[in-house]
Fold each of these.
Amino acid sequence: MSAIGLNHFLALGAVLFCLGTYGVLTRRNAIAVLLSLELMFNAVNLNLVAFARFMPNLDGVVLAVFVIAVAAAEATVGVALVLSIYRNFRHIDLDQVDTMKG
Amino acid sequence: MHEQVAAAALEGAAANVWLVPLLPFLAFLIISFLTRPWGRVSAAVSILALTGSLGVSAQVFWQRFTQDGPPMQVALPWITLAPDHPLGTIELGLLVDNLSAMMLLMVCFVGLCIQIYSTAYIQTEIAHFPTQGSASMSRFFGWMSLFTFSMLGLVLSHNLLEIYIFWELVGLCSYLLIGFWYFKHSAAEACKKAFVVTRFGDLGFLMGILMLGVALKGFDFLGLTERFAQGIPQGLTAGFVALAAVLIFCGAIGKSAQFPLQIWLPDAMEGPTPVSALIHAATMVAAGVYLVARLFPVFHPAGHAGEAALIVAWIGGVTAFLAATIAVVQNDIKRVLAYSTISQLGFMMAGLGMGAYTAGSFHLITHAFFKSLLFLGSGAVIVACHSNDLWRMGGLRRQMPFTWFAFLMGCLALAGVPPLAGFWSKDEILGYVHAAPGGMALYLLLTFSAFLTAFYVTRMYFLAFEGPYRGVEKAPADLSGPVPPPSLPAPFPTSQALGVAPEWTEEMADSSQADLPAACRGAGMEQAPHGGHLPHEVSPWMWAPLLVLAFFAVFLGFTGVPTGVGLGLPNFFEGFIHLSGEGHPHEFHWTPMLLSVVVALAGIALGAGLFAGDPERGERRLRSGLGRVWPFLQQKWYLDHLWARALAGTMYAGARAMAWVESNLVDRAVFGVAASFRTWGDWLRAEHTGKVQHYALMILLALILLAVGIGMVEPGFFTSRHFVLNLLEGGR
């Protein structure tokens, strides 16, 4: 059994990203969609950190810190949106939120 | 263009010939921009300018008359085409030869008489319209000056394109002056009709000009006539030349009111009477005749009548006959004269078509004098009687001695009584047609027209000047009034046949005036009460020009007496106006001359027999004698209806075809495009569910599609080291 290399991290990141995407696209509960979104962020972060580990510089780590900051901001906006949806619709079922219908 | 043409430069008095059209144009500008508020000043400006033109043109005429030489011309380049263009340079220029010198003198002289007359006449008309004042007088003289400029320019034109420009300018002035009382519905309709009808002819004219000019690589008259003098030019077929000539003649048909486009001229009588005298009797309507005379060799290559000349002759003959018959039944004194003008123009055309170059031109000149005299005389009568209707006149001989005398001279000249002007010129034409090979049928037609001419002139004279004065009160209600009367049914109900009636007819004009406020009503003077007093003689400003013109109506004919008559007079006119090169003066015969005297006297005798004693009884006998022909003549041979039908039929057929194209092709294409967008829109609309997760899915799919696309186009993109490095190292 060989040592754990970059490709293992990338594979894990890809799996996590796909799981997150699947969650975003399929979950009806808005909170669950936000959670899935966080999963996608962290998959990307994992990739970045892994690259930083196997490359001779810290760019990836710096980028990951930024992503975490942005994700935090995104979470506040997202939760605020969910609250707003709840106030308007009395539920947070995204399937039934279709006022953007063309 | 054609340097081989033997033409001298302008010399002597002719060097000043440019002043002749320029002075009236300056008068037009001055009147338009400076003296507009002061009508009398405008009149003075216009008359002074025309007097100057008359002086110069008299000098030019005298120079041509005393030292007959080659035609003189000057030309300046106007449009320079590409150097290798076959047409070379198009020029504007002045052409002075005997014909144009004579026309210049005639236009200036008759125009001056008419303008002097107008100073008094137009004021009486203005007085009838409360909205019109001194500025209207300026408007009148300004446009008269513009017309005079255009007509003189037309006469002096050096090439076909130039004459076309002036041709349209006189048409414009005619339009403006017919519609001078623009607030009268009838006048507005009449000027529109005149303009549109002549446009039909002008279309052919333009095509003819282009055919001839492009084929012969030049437009100038001298070049054209020179090349036709020896026969049809090389490279052209007789058919081509005939077609071009006929097309050019179309312009003359329109302008000179020949059959079948004669319908506009009677309606043009809506204009003030001096306008009728100047434009619609003496000058502009003669422009068509002038054009044919100017291009005489094109119609008669090498002196032999072509097919086109035959068409000219027969159109002229038919017109002369048709208009003469209609003139017999008219009640409006100006309309009698209008139809008479059409008829006389037909005589000229017939003469020119049969090859009577000199006689046709001679009749043009004499006719200009006696017909403008008759029109001005009728204007004086209208002023005196406050009516155009012959049945409201009568007995004016005693009240208006000067007008009576002048008018009588005009009538005799028109009727063709020897030795007045009209006799000599008309007889020249008749004699020539009689002698021409194959001209017998045309001769008989023209002779019968001459008989009718004498008859209707006599009728008009007796109704207006002899017997007791009738006025409004004693006018016979069943005889007087507009022709055709509104009660006279049309031959076929046009409105039912096509859904359209003629756009405009005289009876409509008369009824349409009822809509106007009384102050603006058509010659509102017609309704003016006469107060029982008799008409009285008009002012000397009006009768003096009449007497001057009467002098010429009597004596002008002696300038063209055929040498065979034996009066001992040389034939000045023939000596002056003849075809260059060959002089073939036709042989003089006593038979046609005596016959035309007999015919004229017979017409007068018949007219006098019917109308001298009791005109009403005579008119009734005439009507019963004519029987069913009478309404036919009153409806002007139904030609207005025929035109309405032909035009409306063509228009409607075209409109129906267009409607089909519109609804079946254009609409289908347009609606098809719209429907396709709607379909696409519906299809795309279904994708916009409003659910955010669907949008996210779309984004994901698009991203995958993009990645796959890039991967297919450049397979190494994602696996290359550069991809990762670019991501990580950025722009470092």
Amino acid sequence: MSQRTSFRQRVTTNPEVVERFGDLHPPFDRQAAVPEANRCLYCFDAPCTTACPTHIDVPRFIKKIASGNLAGSARTILDANILGASCARACPVEVLCEGACVMHRYNKQPIEIARLQRFAMDSLHESGAPLPFEPGAETGLSVALIGAGPASLACAAELRRRGIRAHLYDVRPLPGGLNTYGVAEYKLPLVESLREIEMLSQLGVEFHFETMIDAAALAELERKHNAVFLGIGLGAIHRLGIVGEQLSGVTNALDLIAGYKSGALTKVPERVAVVGAGNTAIDAAIAAVRLGSTDVHIVYRRGPEQMSAFAFEYEHAKNEGVKFLWHVQPIRIHGDKTVERMELTKLVAIEDGSIVPQPGSEFSLEVDLIVLSIGQGTHAGFLAESGGKNAKVELERGRILIDRATGQTSNPKFFAGGDCTNGGREVVDAVADGKRAGIGIAAWLEVQHVQA
Amino acid sequence: MSKPKPTLETTFCGIPCLNPFWLASAPPTNCGEQIMRAFDAGWGGAVWKTIGVPITNVSSRYSSIDWEGRRMMGFNNIELISDRPTEVNLREIAEVKRSYPKHVVIASLMVESKRETWHDMVQRAEDAGADGLELNFGCPHGMSERGMGSAVGQVPEYCEQITRWVKEKARTPVIVKLTPNISDIRIPARAAKRGGADALSAINTINSITSIDLDTFQPSPNVDGKSSHGGYCGPAVKPIALNMVQQIQADPASALPLSGIGGIGSWRDAAEFILLGCGTVQVCTAAMHYGFRIVEDMQDGLLAWMAEKGFATIEEFRGLSLPNVLEWKQLNLNYQVVARIHEDLCIGCQLCYTACWDGAHQCIHLDRTSPTPDTTRTPAMVEAEAARRISATPIPKLDAGGMGRSSAVTPLERIPRVDEHHCVGCNLCSLVCPVENCITMERIDNGLPFESWEERTAKGLVPPGAQEVMSTNT
């Protein structure tokens, strides 16, 4: 598909969404960035770099900010992480680089690595300079990448820098996967994701949008290309499997987030219940608040100590006015055509550790919208032929098994990375997987090429 | 027995001072109104902005060096002496002395090198009521091109001659302000002493070009695209000033009451200058940066320190550190210290490790978790290992093991180890370490008696050739 129009020109974010979803972490200006950069101790073999899945050389890019070498700073970031701009905004740095900062042991605030990284990347974008890398000399080799999310984009960048053609196939009309459609707008605005991908495309990546790859299409791609990278992410959000779930007014967190980010959804009703307590559930609940809901509950079958959301996300949700109902489970949704109320039961732990409904504890929550966020399934099914016996690649509970260092699957021509291999982690993990796979593919192809 | 309450009152070459904190001759002492406000803020004295034949200044006069986000660590000016008519300055001196009889007003003077001109200026300044005179033989820019300022200070004969002319006339103490822009500060100091100076003040500013604009290629301060060398001062010059102060005080032919100048901004700086023999201190840059109010803590802090140390007066600790500055050849060669890393304080930044490998003697190692000490692993090998590690975002609950590692405790593998047998005791690691007291330099008792290079050479224990090198170096 032709790629001449700018991705950003194809979308306009609703101004009301822009206003309601202002930056969670406002950008640094130069006068604030430089002293913060100078605060960095410049650790040797820095723990922040080790903690970053893509191993960005953090002290190096920070010292370049301090010295005023902003182009060099951005290049240092991009060299390790081609999606360094979105990671600067979307990464849960509290548990990654900033969490590893030695300043924690010094009774001092960790260095604000994410904001410094954003400062360097914003400076590069504002300077209008091109991506500081050139595609490698053409090798005549090509790779098909299924999915155009962070893993595939990172893989494609590595391939292009080595002169290998990269064809990305995605069912959506825009690239970026969850980076474009799934990260809360106050962390990473959709247009920023597209701006970054546009820059990456300077390496000469070929996108094929609105293209569904089924088993037959995959076989065709396998024949036409020298290798295949699977960056297919996860599948649909699970359903509760209870009466009333088919009613209008039951949606899921990913649809809600993609809806408001792409401008299709600008308003939600007053009373909202989000089922589940992961990071995505928190994003959905906060989105509901920002989109006008006055009464937002998160309902979760366990307690706060078991929820999978990061502690800082939980705090953020509480600050936004989200209320939490712990140890409860929806049992039925009532309504005439649309949702009116959700019936729940309390849960108790029994001796063997499992949790069961507590008889007689049923109660109702009046809601206008129910947002499900109870984990995603996988959609690696198309990889399996005749009921999984002759799977293209080896799977384990729906996840594609890979060699972590190279991304190679059980089928040597197939590589994979991102959520479809790790069960759903962060953008930066997908980038790291894609990067390792891109290098892995190039190394494998080189061996194949020499042998051929 | 309780010590008497300490006092800052002191006497400097016969001039009684409420405290040793004076404003140096500079923009903060440009006019009487400023000086009276400074006295209200607590300054004990002020050296008037140098009086002479009024000059015309350029527009754009100062520039500075910022250091890692802090402003004005070094300060530069190309401003000349007072641009106000002499009679205005003298009239204001009289007004200030009338209103503040107990505060010290020193008239800084600079006129052309003629006996009568100096005599005339001395007379007028003293008639106005100045408590003393400071001869500006130090200004390094502009005035020196006209044969004044450092053009005098750099030539011992001129320095001595003009001091003598001034002394012929002066009834109040004469302080000669020295320029640091010479090869040996003792030469002009001795000349001033020979000329009869009652006291010295040091240092004046150091010749400098602070910076070049990388877009315009022009130096700063920018005067219509051009600049000229200026005088450098501020915190950055303090070590240079302390050294010169010590050189003067340790030389009997130079030693006189000394007013210390150069990078003083706090009571700590002041105490250091006094410990090296200064009777008063003069401040400019810090007052230009933060205002006259800084003197409150200078007084408060110095008094508290004096009380803690049991000093009742400035004189009781003045010069106490002078005997501790020796020539290198007199230092104990058998004194030995080694670095010790206190694991409980270490935050694991490993700056000591990289500093010792690249900047010192390769005796700090990252081998605490190795089965045996490994002194062969280079920094490059350590970094290569780290680059191969695969890490992922921890998911709470799922990755309890990885996530649970508290960032409050430094992992053992990140705490460097000092190979004490090879440590030369250079201090570098303890200087780069960001945590106070985490790396201490501990004395090793090697059982050897005191022995200096001087003694060793006297005993003839020096390897052939070394004697010659030693004599050329001294």
